[in-house]
Design brief:
Elements: H1 8-14, H2 17-25, H3 37-44, E1 54-58, H4 64-73, E2 76-81, H5 84-96, E3 103-107, E4 120-126, H6 135-145, E5 146-158, H7 168-171, H8 179-188, E6 192-198, H9 200-216, H10 218-225, H11 227-246, E7 250-257
Parallel strand pairs: 1-2, 1-4, 2-3, 4-5
Antiparallel strand pairs: 5-7, 6-7
Helix pairs in contact: 2-10, 6-8, 9-11, 10-11
């Protein structure tokens, strides 16, 4: 069965130059996801990264999280993303930031690109793995590419009961799991020592900040990106804020370990 992440059409429609302008104007600092700089600063401290670390991000978007981690910890990093636009933007912004000696990017489907076995100390996801409906397959792919004792780590929204997002037509077909199911699927893929972190408050604050800037800079954003993009993003962030407030969605970080040699 082909995983739904392989449908590049939806991804290419969702992520383009117009959305990028909107994100820049709202000062998202290269973070497209629900949780932005607050969440990554918190989570990055848990990963134990050093200049000797080799990190791979699956669904790396325009590369903001990897650039942050490489600049902060001096680690080498590789990103893979399905979107041609994201790939080009990631390479361009990484070169402009002077980080291309640490960070590189590949274009393609994370489940189809042949990754060298046991090559990375960390495999990372930042709110892109919701596009994978077969998450065990994704986690097994990560397991093979990790060195013994290496870590899988990701940030993602979670829900105990399935949610139907009105904004799915803008985001694409995403699937959030319960915290118990994320844990179970990681263990099914062979991981152990699963750690969980509640990042809901950080995600809530990041979405609220983005929403505030979106409203405060409405005229500039509409002039630059157009009303369709503006009101689409307004709906996306408002819906996530409401779901967090009602407890229908939470946000979490997971870190689990591959068995050592």
């Amino acid at each position: 069965m082909v995983d739904k992440q392989a449908d590049s059409g939806i991804v290419d429609e969702a992520y383009d130059e117009t959305l990028l302008k909107c994100m820049d104007l709202t000062e998202r600092h290269d973070f497209y996801g629900i949780v932005a700089l607050r969440g990554l600063q918190f989570f990055g401290e848990k990963l134990g990264l050093t200049p000797d670390s080799r990190i791979l991000e699956l669904c790396s978007g325009i590369g903001g999280p990897l650039r942050f981690l490489a600049k902060t910890y001096g680690c080498k990093a590789t990103g893979i993303d399905l979107s041609q636009f994201n790939h080009r933007t990631a390479e361009k912004r990484t070169k402009e930031a002077g980080l291309d000696h640490l960070v590189n990017f590949l274009h393609g489907n994370a489940l189809e690109i042949r990754l060298p076995d046991e090559s990375f100390t960390h495999i990372f996801g930042c709110e892109g793995w919701c596009y994978f409906h077969d998450k065990v397959r994704l986690y097994k792919t990560a397991y093979r590419a990790l060195k013994p004792g290496g870590q899988i780590a990701f940030l993602e929204a979670a829900c105990d009961s399935p949610v139907q997002l009105r904004t799915a037509e803008l985001l694409g077909d995403v699937k959030y799991e319960s915290i118990a199911d994320y844990t179970s699927m990681l263990e099914t893929a062979g991981f152990e020592m699963v750690r969980k972190y509640d990042t809901t408050e950080l995600a809530y604050k990041d979405v609220a900040s983005g929403l505030y800037r979106l409203i405060a800079k409405r005229d500039r954003i509409i002039e630059s990106a157009g009303e369709e993009v503006y009101f689409g993003l307004l709906e996306v962030w408002s819906e996530f804020l409401a779901y967090f407030s009602e407890g229908r969605l939470t946000h979490c970080g997971f870190i689990a370990q591959k068995k050592g040699a």
